[in-house]
Amino acid sequence: MFTGIDEVDWASLRHAHGSAADVPGLLRGLASADTAEREAALDGMYGSVHHQGNVYDSTLACVPFLFALAARAEVPDRAAIVELLVSIGTESAGPPARTAVRAGAEAFVSLAEDPCPGVRRAATAALVRFLDEPARVLELLGRRIAVERDEQVLRALTASLGLFARSRPAEAAGAVRLLAAQSGPPHSPGTRLAALGQLGLGAPERLPADLVPTAVRLLRERSGHRTTAPAPGRTEPDTLVGRIRRLRPSDEEGSNLLRTLHRALDDRVADRIALLVGQLDSPDAMDRCNAVRMSAGLFREWRADFRAPVSLIGAQLRSAEDQLRDAAVSVLAELFELAAPAADDLHALVIARPDLWTHAWERGRPSLGGPLKALTRSGDPRAVPVLAQSLAGPAAPAGLGFEVVRLGAAAAPLAPALRRRLGRIPLDSPEAAELAAPLLAALTALKDPAAVPEVLRLLRGAPEGLGAREALVGQAVRALDALGATARAATPVLRGLLDTRHAAVAAGALWSAEGDARAVLPFLLRELTLGRGRGVRTAAEQLGRLGAAAGEALPALRALAESGRGRERTAAARAWWRIEGDPDPVLPVLRTAWSENPYARGAIAECLAEMGPAGAPLRDLPTGELAAARRHTARPGGYGSHDIARDERLLADCRTALARQ
């Protein structure tokens, strides 16, 4: 197995953490009779030699030895070694790795017929990925399907057929015929579900018309015959690989089967919702847990009427299964107002389980617990009494104020407690800004005039030199801005900030308090022309608030609207409209920004709503947005940086804009 291993100058090779001198030890560890040593060696291979999918010169040097290990029947856990080889050689690894694995690809033919089911399962994908003879590959897969009796290996063969059909479209017909045959009797429910998913990805025209009821029925038949369960007393080792295994769903295979089917259905959102409802209504708790987890991607990516699945996710909160309940809470907390159909179940859980009101972390202060956070984000006023109790305790959960914002005016009874918390923050603490930010956010949203003394305490009392003052100023001034004329007592402090980097936001607050455009216009003009980044955008926004009194700023605003960066152009165009009132030069800027930067659409929709009939020439923009099925910042697959609340707000603004035109 290790012939020639000592002839390689491993010390001169590299992996993710430097010298590869330790790699021979890792390779030998893969062949160890000791389970813990093998797991540690595999952990090391993924943690250094093939770290995060990367390939190094040491990775390529390992390939012949990995093939040698995989070929020896006496080596335990050969399936993991084959999986490592396949991972090294996949498309994402780059041409050198593919070439290295492809050079030994013939070995996968015998491994696909190995007595060990795990090895056979791992080798099937390699046949498609690395053998260069399509007809032979298809013949090998068909032969294995005809004789294979292990259900998990059959699923892997089905996935390999799907990969073949997608990667070799010219020769796909044979693979599609095999998949179509697998999707019906006498194959097991799991195999049929797997075949339906692969058909959907590669040959959707071959899917049955009654796909959703068929899939739900097969899922329940599969659950009724499920035999896979954790081995009694088995504990995963404390390695990277072991931790990943512990995080996997209890029924990972079932999760993958339905996730593949959802991916195949893609933009057929009505079918996906119906399928999800069928999963969530299953009598099997593992099926429901899998459904809850995969629902998040659907909600993040698509716009639809999700009331039915959300209500069923709420019903999972009644489960005694911690894993199922926690998964449901996690999804609901991400939905904000869309979680309203589950609000009754969330409230019932919050009342029944005070121990879940906060979540303790290993380090740092506790945060708001998931059920209470989800209830608050949904805008349900029943969260207010519970939040009041949390605020009355010795330590308010971190970030509580940010969540209170979602309750709107219903949170008004919390204002006194929020003010008291703000008043207790030690201003010489390096955590002062972190503690104050959520409280200021809540008091700003509530527009609580009684908060002025506490906000001024922050502005006047934070000492220089600790960084606390600089971090606090912007947050505190925005709170004063929201309070308008009731914050007149703060005007001396605000004037003192007009020559700092907070000039734009301070000028806005001063305008709100006094309404004197002449007092703030010079400072806003300076920030607009000489400032940088967010300060320029803030200056443009504040100038727009001044209306016609800011006419002097029009030349600079026009220049920014026509040649500025990103959202600066939108802010400048909006201010231009507010000051001059002529839509003709502004509308082309807004149209271009809408198409170039999806993240600017919210501000543009607000502007169109404000413009009323003057914005009618851009009516097609909100109309098209409301007709679009995919969320405006979503990426296919439901992954990435998505903000459901922001997208729902955009849709509301689009409806308002159209109603006012």
Write up what this structure looks like.
By secondary structure, this protein is mainly alpha-helical. The chain is built from 36 helices and four strands. It has helices at residues 23-30, 35-49, 57-71, 78-89, 95-103, 107-111, 117-130, 134-147, 151-167, 172-182, 189-202, 211-224, 240-247, 252-265, 269-280, 285-301, 307-315, 322-333, 343-352, 370-377, 383-392, 400-404, 415-423, 432-446, 452-461, 468-483, 491-496, 503-514, 517-530, 534-546, 554-563, 566-580, 586-596, 601-611, 620-627, 644-660; strands at 14-15, 18-19, 358-359, 367-368. A two-stranded antiparallel ribbon has the order 1-2. The protein has a two-stranded antiparallel ribbon with strand order 3-4. Strand 3 and strand 4 form a beta hairpin. Helix 26 (468-483) packs parallel to helix 28. It is elongated, with a radius of gyration of 30 Å. The model is unreliable at 228-234 and 243-248 (pLDDT under 50).
Structural class: mainly alpha
Largest sheet, spatial ordering of strands:
1-2
Task: Please give the alpha-carbon distance between the first and last residues.
Answer: 76 Å
- Which stretches of 5+ consecutive residues score pLDDT under 50? 228-234, 243-248
Number of helices, counting only DSSP H or I runs of 4 residues or more: 36
Our estimate of the beta-strand percent is: under 5%
How would a textbook summarize the main sheet?
2 strands, antiparallel
Oligomer: single chain
Number of strands: 4
Helix content range: 55-70%
Rg, Å, rounded: 30 Å
The outline comes out as elongated
The whole-number mean of residue pLDDT values reads: 91
